[in-house]
Write a structure and sequence with these properties.
Blueprint lengths: L2 H11 L11 E5 L2 E4 L4 E4 L2 H4 L8 H13 L10 H13 L6 E5 L2 H15 L4 E5 L8 H6 L5 H4 L11 E4 L19 H12 L5 E6 L15 H12 L2 E6 L22 E4 L11 E5 L1 H8 L12 H16 L2 H18 L7 E7 L2 E9 L2 E4 L1 H13 L2 E2 L1 E5 L4 E6 L7 H19 L1
Parallel strand pairs: 3-14, 5-6, 5-7, 7-8, 8-9
Antiparallel strand pairs: 1-2, 2-3, 4-10, 9-10, 11-12, 12-13, 12-16, 15-16
Helix pairs in contact: 3-11, 4-11, 5-10, 12-14, 13-14
Bound molecules: pyridoxal-5'-phosphate (PLP).
The site of pyridoxal-5'-phosphate (PLP) has 16 residues, from helix 5.
Amino acid sequence: MSMRGFLARDDRAITQVYFRDPVVMERGEGVFLYDIEGKRYLDFSAHYSSCCLGHSNKNLITAIEAQMSKLISVSAQFSSMERIYLAEKLLSLTNGKYGKVLFGCTGSDAIEFAIKAVKHHKKGGNIITFWRGYHGATAGSAAATGKAETIQIDENISDLLPGGFIHVSPPYCYRCDYEKKYPDCDLFCLKYIKKRVAQDGCANIAGVIIEPVQAAGGVIVPPEGYMEKLKQLCEEMDSLLIFDEVVTGIGRTGTMFACEHWGIYPDILVAGKALTGGYIPGSAVLMKKDIAESMDKLTLHGHTHSAYPLMCASALANLKIIEQEKLCNNAHVVGKLLHNRLLGLKSISDKIGDIRGIGLLQGIEIVCGNGSKRADFIFAEKLYRNLLKAGVITELESSYRLESSVLILHPPLILTKEQAEEAVEIIRNVLIILLK
Ligand SMILES: Cc1ncc(COP(=O)(O)O)c(C=O)c1O
């Protein structure tokens, strides 16, 4: 059957709640995906940042197969060696800064638990969160999200969202909400949080949740000094700090966790996506000892599939491969090269408004150019589609509400310098053709 035929069947049989490209994929190998017509794509999306080892990694598959023939699943009613080993591994990877771990199935449910933990530990209170941040699709995680996703703007379902979240401006220096310039701004956006809290009359701020680098919000990297000051602000407000490292964790930014860039270990750190290597779903919430111990007293939080041995074994094998193959360092080195090559694209057109990122999480912000920073949604869409046709898969985060359009590149951590060069060359050629 043809591609068109399969897509028509997909339309008929699947509820299309998510934007889908007109491609049916068949197989993957390393950084490449192949569609059913045999066309090869450089996968710079890596299953939304999950497939850190690329596709069909033999060692990871062998470990998963071995676990499958031993024990796939056992309920949380029992322990398993795999969940103990994985929890201990995560605790050692974070230098003993955390006391305990809770496992989940997706990033969303892990964030949901982190929010519960903050509120329970602080005996209630509000949570500060950032516009443009994405934290998940379940009610609590969606309420923390600052991107006006469907659930927030569809009035038929928006009353599913719990209250108690205060959204504030992220450190998006390219488009500062306060129209200030870094460093002259003296991090006004952080100072304003205090003012906002006072004006809202919220004495009790239980926690602050932030993605160390906002990913789906447009790869927003905080400026120097921001994280340290945010941590200080949390201390002043007697609030807990949660890092949502669902995208930035597990090597993506060139360190195992992005928090290492600032030497700041938040009170709660959430990992997901690439934790398991991306073939098996799984997530983890790392908590400081006192928080974990207060949650120990609660019974019943969990999902049928949390912490099942197959997930834990996959994560253990994945982390071992990342360490053995020094993939955090690879993300740092190849990410730097990718960033520098992308910067070179700015000379082709001033439609490339900004290039930002750390490690293998890079963003290309598309604007109208000719001196205007207005987002060029139509051009960004054309670029995204034509890149796909030319064999490079990216992720387009365009939002009329947020007035920005950013192409996101987050390839597997195994990306080589040559593959990074190849992708940038394709982007360059596509840009030149579109600008003619
Ligand atoms: C930063 C961040 N947090 C949480 C989530 C939710 O993860 P999941 O889609 O696995 O539920 C995502 C998903 O894209 C994310 O990007």
